What we know:
The protein is α/β, with parallel strands linked by helices. The protein has helices at residues 26-39, 44-56, 69-80, 85-91, 108-114, 136-149, 160-164, 168-182, 199-211, 230-247, 262-275, 293-306, and strands at 59-61, 100-103, 122-125, 153-157, 186-190, 216-218, 252-254. The protein has one domain (16-311): TIM Barrel. A seven-stranded parallel sheet has the order 1-2-3-4-5-6-7, with helices on one face.
Amino acid sequence: xxxxxxxxxxxxxxxxxxxxxxxxxxxxxxxxxxxxxxxxxxxxxxxxxxxxxxxxxxxxxxxxxxxxxxxxxxxxxxxxxxxxxxxxxxxxxxxxxxxxxxxxxxxxxxxxxxxxxxxxxxxxxxxxxxxxxxxxxxxxxxxxxxxxxxxxxxxxxxxxxxxxxxxxxxxxxxxxxxxxxxxxxxxxxxxxxxxxxxxxxxxxxxxxxxxxxxxxxxxxxxxxxxxxxxxxxxxxxxxxxxxxxxxxxxxxxxxxxxxxxxxxxxxxxxxxxxxxxxxxxxxxxxxxxxxxxxxxxxxxxxxxxxxxxxxxxxxxxx
Length: 318
């Protein structure tokens, strides 16, 4: 798919006619998702290249209640050097970083200082993450605080009740105000798809968030009972495709939660390539919210380089 614009999605007015009549065939979506990895095989040097690309697209994240500046600094060190030097040398790589580091607002300043001069963006969750059940005024102030601390990207959470009630005007207004509060920082709209009940709701929420100016749409907070799945992701990326065909604007996609293996990294990249094209295999339009996945990717790449699997203790923790 060729789109004219590569700048930020500006959003626009709410257009219910773009999504109200859309139906989603759930069994068909599940069948399509199930065949993604069986129809395409990625092996040997090609697999290594895809796994390196996955690292470029990872939002390395810590969102724990016991986060400390030291933990965030350690995470940033891993973002700067996600692979051990011996693996980098074996792959013939001189420099590789993750797509971003994602933290709570109070840890943004620490991350900004730790990543100074690297070009690695700092992302911050905001708006009452993960539930979002705070007054809108306070959620907007949290965005402004994170941006003032130096965040380049803001991962917001929507009010799920707006989707469940079909109150699309309220959802559009909420996301539009959040986009305005972000200023120059890119907005990633977390839909919390595990709470939205139906794939049709997922499609509608995706379209409304993009109409309101979201730069990315993201599956989950990672805190729901069900997080990123391939059928849900398929519906979201097709909404991105439909939006792009109507407007010419490119919107990014971020699956998050539940993805832990190198095999998962390959599956989501195959989805992006087949449904949206190679442009969406770049961190500018695709992120993986799956920090634990990095350990398995590093393990697989060491096997590619050396022919053997290393003990997990040989790899630095993210």
